[in-house]
Design a protein that fits this description.
The chain is mainly alpha-helical and about 90 residues long. The protein has a domain at about 65-85. It has four helices and no strands. It has helices at about 15-25, 40-50, 55-60, 65-80. The protein is elongated, with a radius of gyration of 24 Å.
Length: about 90
Amino acid sequence: MPNRSRKPKLPDPNTAAFGIILSFDGASPPESTAPPADGKDPAAVSLGRKGGLKGGKARAASMTKAQRTASAKKAAAARWGKREVAS
């Protein structure tokens, strides 16, 4: 696993310099059309949460016991790298 830094990213120095220059002119910086700092679209996040919170439970409720067992065996085999268990 790669070693990722836990340090927060520093703001872009070019953006900071641009803001300083604009402050000397008395102009306001242009409105940013960039996505939020986390890089996620808030509308997409809210839509994903709606379906994502109930997806697994709804799927499990619609499966039979045999189907749930087969799915669990397949997931365990994929997770632990073993051959698929024949039932």
